[in-house]
Amino acid sequence: MHIDINEPNAAERFWEGMQEVAAAARKHQDYDLYRAIVKIGRAALAQGVELVPTGGLFLQCPVCEALPGQRCINIPGHPLHGNILHPRRFELAEKAIKGEVPPPIPLS
Question: What is the pTM (predicted TM-score) of this model?
Answer without folding.
Answer: 0.63
